[in-house]
Design goal:
Rossmann fold; six-stranded mixed beta sheet; 27 helices; alpha/beta; binds guanosine-5'-triphosphate; binds magnesium ion; elongated; transmembrane; 10 strands
């Protein structure tokens, strides 16, 4: 079969390629207001005006065709048709940022010189206008010798013209011999600047509130204070705003449990559904509102352009522990999940920088840890304020996140002196323009979190919970036996056997029961505790309230604190181990990562436990 013509979206990072890709194909690739969002090629279908289908590929942004990092290699291979599975593209859509034209034109000139059919998408013309800059696409087109179409990807403006230009290009313009590519960057930059200046029709000093904002956001003193304040508000909100929706979800599950109990006779199926699925999966799902609040903050900060400023502020501190400035975005992504975070390290060109970042990525508190943290905090940290207005629970949560970051910094420092010895490179990142978040992007981002979370709850978490339920429910102790169901069960016996290992750090049988299945996904720890207490205490009403009370009755405060500390460090996640193996091509580094993190978790949990006991908590 004849494959559809291939059209590639290329350009500098943060030019709006993915936004344009989404607008043209209806896909939902992640867009974010910082460079390095896309790290892999993604393709989609687009129909030209005459009905011909083309395959459109979205590529990682890059500054030139000399790849420095793994993601940039992807772009070079697609554009030149050189990679193993690549065919040369039939046309290129070169995406440039209208408000940053001279920088973006440098790469555009190199791409045009390749001799393939090219159309330039002059994107973000809305932002250029906001800053008082008016450009003439016709002049630009004449200077570059290729069609130029003004677009606003996020408002779907200019898409028809772009499609028309592509219809005209694809298959009708032959590939010409590559022109002489200017090798000297300085000369190229000068040419780009001259062309950009000719295309300017009007330049009035627009509202420069971005500069005013940066005077604060990047200020050596106020900048870090602002960052701290933002993070602080974020963690307070996680508790303060989630109370009501969590209540609704809990009520829903209690009602569901009552409904199922009324429907089914006492026995195997009723226990499987109420003690297993509802108690376990329900215990996890109640945390959805908190996860969404956290992501609402992260997505808004990302889309506004603030995150790169935060990276810039952190750069000095990161350089001091031997991390490259480029590590910031991968580490930031790891707050959602270490898996995309580790994949995002492909933007780091230095191998040792990259390896260090991969090894510490699991220390960033991923969203799967949030349910574990909040259930323990909810049970053991009183819901009161310190100093009159600061919520103590939010403060403790904030502390746990900070602890993960500090742990990562200490680990980076140690790794940089030993296994990944070498110098780190400094920070180099363009500052994106500030803008109001596109609510569509934020909503889509939140929705994708809901999908990911519910899918995990419905698959990994549900499955592990059911297996655990079965192992906890059988065999049944003989009538009148003093041994409890849980202790008599297969899982209980295993847990009781393993308890010797974790007793020194203050863990009990219930924790052992929770930790092993939690390797599948961290939230399973919460599901497991829910299931254990549902089986151990079938009279109690279901839902989180019962779990919280059970926790308070059965765990001491030092044990609870040690458990929290364990989760700050422990590599409790098989997917992370798998992606580390894939990104480092072997078992050596994942094995090392698991080893050092478990050791850290054990030691830190132990110290916490004994310190808390010594303090008489
Ligand atoms: N105002 C405005 N914002 C835009 C436009 N196009 C993209 N954006 C925003 O610019 C940011 C970057 O867009 P992306 O599509 O992620 O950029 P990209 O070129 O794919 O970036 P990388 O994947 O990092 O190379 C996002 O915050 C978008 O919402 C536009 O035409 N106008
Ligand atoms: Mg992109």
């Amino acid at each position: 079969m004849h494959a559809a013509p291939l059209v590639a979206l290329v350009g500098n990072p943060n030019a709006g390629k993915s936004a344009l890709f989404n607008a043209l194909t209806g896909a939902r690739q992640k867009v974010g207001n910082y460079p390095g969002v896309t790290v892999e090629r993604h393709s989609g279908r687009l129909a030209l005006d005459d009905g011909r289908p083309v395959e459109l590929v979205d590529l990682p942004g890059t500054y030139s065709l000399d790849p420095a990092s793994a993601d940039e290699r992807v772009t070079r291979d697609v554009v030149t048709g050189r990679g193993k599975f690549e065919r040369a593209p039939d046309a290129l859509v070169v995406v440039v940022d209208a408000a940053n034209l001279d920088n973006h034109l440098r790469f555009a000139l190199q791409l045009i010189a390749l001799g393939r059919p090219v159309v330039v998408a002059l994107n973000m013309v809305d932002l250029a206008e906001r800053d008082g800059l008016t450009l003439d696409p016709a002049i630009l087109s004449r200077e570059l010798g290729v069609p130029v179409v003004p677009t606003v990807a996020v408002r779907k403006r200019g898409l028809d013209d772009l499609r028309a230009a592509l219809t005209d290009l694809v298959g009708r313009h032959a590939v010409t011999a590559p022109a002489e590519v200017e090798e000297d960057m300085v000369v190229l930059q000068r040419r780009a600047r001259t062309i950009a200046q000719r295309a300017v029709v009007n330049e009035t000093p627009g509202r420069r509130w971005g500069h005013a904002l940066d005077a604060v956001a990047l200020h050596p003193l106020f900048g870090p204070l602002l960052l701290l304040a933002l993070l602080f508000v974020m963690f307070q909100a996680v508790f303060a705003w989630s109370e009501a929706p969590i209540g609704w979800i809990e009520e829903g599950f209690t009602a569901l449990e009552a409904f199922v109990s009324g429907l089914l006779p006492d026995g195997f199926f009723r226990s499987l559904i109420t003690d297993g699925l509802i108690a376990g999966v329900g215990a996890v799902i109640v945390f959805l509102p908190q996860i969404l609040i956290l992501f609402l903050f992260i997505l808004v900060l990302e889309a506004s352009g603030y995150m790169v400023r935060a990276a810039f502020l952190m750069d000095r501190m990161m350089a001091r522990v031997g991390l490259s400035g480029r590590a910031f975005i991968p580490l930031l992504s790891s707050f959602a999940c270490a898996v995309p975070g580790i994949m995002a390290t492909r933007t780091i060109d230095d191998e040792k920088d990259r390896l260090t970042t991969i090894l510490i990525a699991p220390l960033m508190t991923c969203s799967a840890r949030l349910p574990v943290y909040t259930i323990i905090i909810g049970a053991f940290i009183p819901d009161r304020t310190v100093g009159g207005w600061v919520g103590l629970q939010g403060l403790v949560l904030f502390g746990l996140y900070v602890l993960g970051i500090l742990g990562a910094f200490v680990a980076a420092l140690a790794l940089r002196r030993t296994v990944t010895k070498g110098a780190s490179s400094g920070f180099m990142m363009e500052m994106p323009k500030y803008q109001w978040p596109q609510w569509r992007d934020v909503t889509l981002g939140l929705w994708s979190r809901v999908e990911i979370f519910l899918k995990r709850a419905g698959t990994t978490i549900a499955l592990t919970t059911v297996i655990l339920w079965a192992l906890l429910s059988y065999p049944k102790p003989p009538e009148g036996s003093p041994v409890s169901q849980v202790d008599y069960s297969v899982a209980g016996r295993i847990a009781n056997g393993l308890e010797v290992i974790v007793r020194p750090i203050g863990f009990n049988r219930d924790i052992t029961l929770a930790l092993i299945p939690a390797m599948a996904a961290r939230e399973v720890a919460v599901a497991a505790i829910g299931t254990v207490y549902a089986i151990d205490d079938p009279e109690a009403e279901g839902g989180q309230k019962a779990i919280t009370e059970n926790l308070r009755d059965r765990w001491s405060l030092p044990t609870a604190l040690a458990f929290l500390m364990w989760f700050v460090f422990a590599p409790q996640c098989i997917s992370t181990i798998a992606v580390t193996r894939r990104e480092t091509n072997g078992w050596k580094w994942p094995a090392f990562m698991v080893g050092y993190l478990f050791a850290a978790a054990y030691i830190m949990a132990g110290i916490t436990y004994w310190l808390a006991v010594a303090l008489g908590l």
